[in-house]
Every structure is written in structure tokens, then in C-alpha cells.
Specification:
mainly alpha; 137 residues; 5 helices
């Protein structure tokens, strides 16, 4: 008897909601950076660079730490480091720019509402699973 070939691992699937949420986060970061940098005075521009560098380092370290919890540890660590670096750099650049709060606070409320709505409307995996069957003889 021949055995069936081993099942290949399924690629990661992302829901449309998570892709839209990521798009909204990027838009809010971009808008906040633009609002803050346009309003920044020339004397604060070095502070933006220092904040971005500190955020890059902190985000990298935090991303590596959080990536360790992924199923695929190597990929999780690499993706955590990348995403942590990029988001930390953007967040660090906004710290010395209080003008960016005008964009961040409403954007955060929109993201929070969106996440709560997606959680409320999404189905759990248990509802989609077929009922268990009794083992055969």
C-alpha cells in the first residue's frame, strides 16, 4: 500500500480585516508624521532624528522579544524585528512633535472602534469546525 504524500504546510492567511487595519495604521502614521513635520520648527528637527533613532532601537528589541512567541520562531523573530523597527522609528519621530497628536488621537479612536467591530462580527474557529466523529473499529 502506498501512503499519501505528507501534507505541505499551509501558507499564512490573513483576513481582509487585518489587511484593512494595517492600511489604516500606516495611513495614521503617515498623516501624523506629515502634520508634525510640517509644523515643526527648524530647531526641533534634530530632536525628530534622535527620537526616530531611539524608536528604531527600542522597536527592534521589542519586536524580537514579541516575535519569539510565533509558531515559526525564526520567521516570527525576523518579522518582529522588521515591523518593530519600522513602527518604532515612526513612533519615535512623533514624540518630539506634539502637533501630530491632532492626527493620532482621532486615528487611534477609529482603529479601536474598527478592532472592536471586527472582533464582534468575526466568527470563532470552533463554529466552523465539523462535529467530532467517533473512532472506527
Amino acid at each position: 500500500m502506498s501512503q499519501p504524500p505528507p501534507a505541505s504546510p499551509q501558507p499564512a492567511r490573513y483576513s481582509l480585516a487585518s489587511i484593512l487595519l494595517l492600511t489604516a495604521v500606516v495611513a495614521i502614521y503617515a498623516g501624523a508624521l506629515r502634520a508634525g513635520i510640517v509644523a515643526a520648527e527648524a530647531s526641533r528637527r534634530p530632536a525628530v532624528g534622535i527620537g526616530a533613532a531611539c524608536g528604531l532601537i527600542a522597536g527592534f528589541i521589542l519586536g524580537i522579544f514579541l516575535g519569539q512567541g510565533a509558531d515559526n520562531r525564526a520567521r516570527g523573530t525576523a518579522m518582529g524585528a522588521l515591523v518593530g523597527s519600522l513602527s518604532g522609528m515612526a513612533a519615535g519621530a512623533m514624540v518630539p512633535l506634539p502637533e501630530s497628536l491632532v492626527v493620532i488621537i482621532p486615528g487611534a479612536l477609529v482603529l479601536l472602534g474598527f478592532a472592536l467591530l471586527v472582533r464582534r462580527l468575526s466568527r470563532t474557529g470552533a463554529e466552523d469546525d465539523p462535529p467530532p466523529t467517533a473512532p472506527g473499529p
